[in-house]
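Still learning. Show one?

>
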Amino acid sequence: MDFSGLSQEVREWLERNGWFPGRDIGSAEADELIDVRVRDAERQGNPLVPIDAAVRVIRTFGLLTLQYPRAGDLALEMNPNVGYDGDAGLISELGTNLGQRLFPVGYESEDYGPVLVDELGRFFHLHHTGAYFWGFNEQDAFAHFMSGAQALDAEDFFV
């Protein structure tokens, strides 16, 4: 990943939360995280296929707890394994509507809604109120989370 696209604000926030340029949890640990999520999706009857963009995000940011800068109890947990029963079907449905496969890379700690990456590297959040677009890349997604701004409806990106 080219980290030159990260704003100074996002880079400093990531670094305060344990990230550093070149960070990589390694393929063995990433594969283990991914396999847990794949098995859970199969158990739910809606297989999820890991995609390159999501694997890259998991290797780079996996297992970090990215604290929301304005509230100590809210975080972006970069662990693809947390979700809720039935979320695999919702992820698959959202992917179909977007015309892109999606794979979880983390979750937002307040409601445990999965944060997803599609084949284009775009970020989406599956919230109990609907699906939302967080950005075209890591910079956009992290800046969005940090700001607390209202996200666009994922429907705006349906094919």
In short: The radius of gyration is 14 Å. The chain has one domain: 3-157. The chain has a mean pLDDT of 95.
